[in-house]
Amino acid sequence: MSTVTFRVFRGDRNGGEIKDYTVEVQEGMVVLDAIHQIQAEQAPDLACRWNCKAGKCGSCGAEVNGKPTLMCMTRLDTIDISRPVTVRPMKTFPVIRDLATDVKWNYEANKKIKPFTPAPNTDWIMFQEDVDRVQEFRKCIECFLCQNVCHVLREHDEKTGFIGPRLLVRTASLEMHPLDVENRLEMLKNEGGIGYCNITKCCTEVCPEHIHITDNAIIPLKERVVDEYYDPVLSFFRRLFGSKKQAQPTGQAADD
Amino acid sequence: MESYTIHDYDVLVVGAGGAGLRAAIAAIEHGARVGVVSKSLLGKAHTVMAEGGMAAALGNVRPEDNWKVHFRDTLKGGGMLNNWKMVMNYTKEAPDRVRELERWGAVFDRTPDGRINQRNFGGHSYPRLAHVGDRTGLELIRTLQDHAVKLGIHAHMETTIYRLLTDAGRVVGALGFNRQTGEFLVFRAKAVVLATGGLGRIYQITSNSWECTGDGFSLASMVGADLIDMEFIQFHPTGMVWPPSVMGILVTEGVRGEGGVLKNSEGKRFMFDNVPERYKGEFAETEEEAERWLQGDRNARRPPELLTRDVVARAIRKEVNEGRGSPHGGVYLDIASRRPADYIKKKLPSMYHQFMKLGNLDITKEPMEVGPTCHYVMGGVRVDPDTQATNVPGLYAAGEVAGGLHGANRLGGNSLSDLVVFGRRAGMAAAEYAAKQSGSYQVDEVQVRAYIAEALQPFNNPQGENPFALMKELRATMQKNAGIMREESELKAQLEILANLKKRAWNTSVSGSRAYNPGWHTALDMRLMVEVSEAVVLAALARKESRGGHARLDYPDPDPTFAKINHIIRRSRDGNLTVVAEPLPEIPEELRKMAEAKDLKELSEKVGA
């Protein structure tokens, strides 16, 4: 057993400071265990958000030695503990207290996305190969680490005209659902701000669910937006005959 | 004087897991103004951790399956103590609730012909669990969350309910506090639906998240609602046992559903020697037969690893106690030698990830070490089987916090569909009840102020105890004295420990501000945890037999006398809990025959499947 120093941010949205705590380390421990030990024995008011401690809920995102990660899935034997370990809250969101940040912007921005709208009178037959891609997107646990590292949100604080990688993934999960008939391209182009993304793939790198955010979600959506709004030939035909997706008949979904 | 904000709703739903969100959706659709209170952020409730799937007799994989076989399996798995009417409502409605999720955007794994796929699980006679790999709970909660947002749900996130409020014997709202700010909120509501989940955190080794502190059981009991069957706690057979920091984290039953086998340190598949009398003849008797079943031979019987959870958990404990365990006190769960690596990664992706990340173990190459972990409580707040109403007017309960459906032992996969079937029923009934309430009812301001003062007391008690240390003590003693195997002397000792902890829970000390203060939250959680722990221990003392999730060393066998009763845990006028034995509701003859059917073909042919 060894002891490790943790340098933890303590404070709120008005600022704060780094405080040092010493933790006894056992085999297999993760960063969240260390934070809990500090809470239980040294600083009972140390705030951090967590739920499942198994990488399934996406609550405990933080920046460990500058790297955005889930604290519950970061084993101490995968980081350098010969030196103090610094734990800070996600930078992109306002701090509530200590390691807990105010992420409600994500829930608000989510409302810009039109909900799932199934084709009318569908028989609900979908083949596995047709839903594999959508299932990849639906693995998202909403840890918001991708939002945290996206420079549009992190450096430029563009939270009105851009929805960020998480919500682009959610849009992709609906747009690529085999039975969905809604059209979300105008939202993506305008208030979704997909044009802001310049494909640096920072989001993909931090995704704990290994979703190919940029390659599988954002780039195909960008292509659809380009086809819809910027392809002169298609645009001409669309003006003549209307958009394919909007041309679908509307009506009640079959509900057998 | 301490201030608070007031929020008016027709229906207040406490909890935003599967049952709470489904109840909210139903109540909104019935025209009620609905508020939802959630201790966590939306989408993070314990439902998100559910892995293997949701049981419903869709008949997509085996057309012989139908509600009658599901009814029979559920009662059989529950030691026949289940409320038969709840089981009937549940098994009949579960398929519609699953299809409804698909219509709201859920994307389940598919059969080769493009329908919702179903997998095998313990105690289910046919492949019955709709699933998405091993992250079915995430799919369920996200779908309900998205649908609730579409309907304009009003959610108070990171808000804890401290007490329910009553007027003239009925529930008229609740007092809570915002965890982020520490500010108090008074909810005035015509009806309250409890959907607060389980109590796993009263045990040291548990698969449950921090939220599962048993709030709903205690809140309900404090306003006079009866609890039922609280002695029945499910210890899931397969939790992680190594390294120490992850002890208890769930390893899905889906591993066994996909062909995984249990072995002891001698390499023996010990489950063949652990088939209880009542399941004799229904399981494979040789490894060869079990192998044929895995290959799809419909004449072969299922492997004994797919016995019910109570049976498997006790068998594992026996192997470990008799010296045939793995190095870290578990047994081996082996899928690596049974299925190709690609198949394992596709069907059990988060198990692969979880062991790789947390245990440095590749489950496609090596067996896992597993052991029992507290997973679920079968008992709960006693409810009407149709409306989920409690015996206190205006109070409803759904999901894990409600009792009755699962009897003495829950089948895997029966929880997720329980949430949506009874969440919906509770939401509808609460909205209908609320619509009929026209008279005046009052929230007692004096009472509210008294509750706020007692909730803030730990801030003004510098000599009090550390709430984290207190919680640790509770969890360790419950594990030792009221865990998977129980006996009278230990249960009685635990009652004394609880009496002591109860006093100390009201003498804690916390420091810092009220904003997002985990020490304070833990101090208040403890007050509810000791109450529900006492209900569990009292019921466990009263049941002098072993059945389902209740195993007594001093009464190791099932007892026919206890086969006929449920235990009701009731708060008497002096505030103490008492246990009352009540005869089971009488089951109609036709349904009883169905439940006792040996030959499943009979059940299938009747519906012409």
Would you write up a description of this structure?
The complex is a heterodimer of chains A (256) and B (609). With 256 residues, chain A is α+β, with helices and mostly antiparallel strands. Chain A has two domains: 2-101, Ubiquitin-like (UB roll) (Roll); 104-241, Fumarate Reductase Iron-sulfur Protein, Chain B, domain 2. Chain A has helices spanning 31-41, 104-110, 128-138, 145-149, 151-154, 164-175, 185-189, 202-206, 213-230, 232-241, and strands spanning 2-12, 15-25, 61-64, 67-70, 85-88, 95-97, 100-101. In chain A, the strands form two sheets. A five-stranded mixed sheet of chain A has the order 2-1-5-3-4. A two-stranded antiparallel ribbon of chain A has the order 6-7. In chain A, helix 3 (128-138) runs antiparallel to helix 6 and helix 6 crosses helix 9 (213-230). The longest helix of chain A has 18 residues, at 213-230. The mean pLDDT of chain B is 96. Chain B is built from 17 helices and 18 strands. In chain B, strands 1, 2, 6, 7, 8, 9 and 16 form a seven-stranded mixed sheet that branches. A four-stranded antiparallel sheet of chain B has the order 15-10-17-18, covered by helices on one side. Chain B is an alpha+beta fold. In chain B, a hairpin with a 5-residue loop joins strand 17 and strand 18.
